Amino acid sequence: MAYTRGTSANIIVGAAALFAYEDGELSDGVLPAYVDGTSYKDTLEADADFRNVGYTMNGLEVVFQPDFGEVQVDQVLDVAKLYKQGMQVNLNTAFAEATLSNLLFATAGKTADLGVDGNANPELNMSAGDIGDVPVEAGLVAVGPGSGAAGAGKERVYVAYRALSIESVTVSAKRDEPSMFEVSFRLLPNDTASYGKIVDRTISAS
Prior knowledge:
The protein has 2 helices and 10 strands; from the N terminus they run βαβββαββββββ. The chain is mainly β. A hairpin with an 8-residue loop joins strand 7 and strand 8 (154-165). The chain starts with 16 loop residues before the first strand and ends with a strand.
């Protein structure tokens, strides 16, 4: 086989659309099925169980952080063996639409904290919580460009079954910067030890 420098069609550039599943842990049984000829963004948009968070900034990052232990022996100056002793996966992004719904999601707040006041204005109760409160988990689905030949209708679908916002979130009102919520989601594995999946999908099978 002749040498090739690489395949430019496998270079992925472009933003992803992010959808929140706010009814708890996400599973394959809840995810809507792919529809031939239809982008998964449109499929999720039409599903009432998923909410489009709207514009994002700084893209989408999925960070895998394995933790390795070391075995050292007398006869080797470096470690003789590495073994995997831990794993952590994070999903990072920034919500550019500073809505109260996005703020609630970014702070892992309870749905009951979001409501309306006596004048029917949306309001978010900044609750301190109670003893015994458990973290509020949610599911995440992102749909972005996929790898493949131009015009082939490829998209990449990122699915996180259990996502929990664990970092501090800042709410700002500044003269020269937009108000946005930078958020880092810690992904947790489900009962089958899966964080989720990444699917390279062809929109049209024909």
